[in-house]
Fold this sequence. Notes:
The chain has 6 helices and 2 strands, in the order H-H-H-H-E-E-H-H. The protein is mostly helical.
Amino acid sequence: MNFKRKDMSRGPLELKLGEQINALISAAHALNVRTSAYFDSSIQPAAFHIVRWIYAHGPTSASELADSTAMDRSSVSRLVKQLEHLGYVRRESAPHDRRAILLTLTELGRQKTFEALRDKENFFYERISKWDNRQLEAFIEMLQAINGFEQTGINSSE
């Protein structure tokens, strides 16, 4: 699509928006690195990304994990071996097909992930703690719009 600017004063505003989005992305990346180190300082952030994915989605095959995290299979294999060695991930037979192997978190992996993510969430909650619900709803709607998500109504889960 070819978008034409009708209002020339909009350009500087769009640049400011881009700067703020870049700042948010950078802050989120730095927070992910910090959260990974909180989880276990001996692992790479990519390994923690694997842990977070399994925590959020449950047991999975190595190939599904690679596809879902946009990592190559050899990297996933290497990182999973490290996570197994540290006691955070284990392999188990799939209930529907005993020949298939699923990766799952151990109890230690689940507990440490929970603690690391709780610390990460506190970072953002501190920043929005003084916002009233109207401000928070407006921010959520703007993020949904910029992310291209159809607005389904914030209060739909209430």
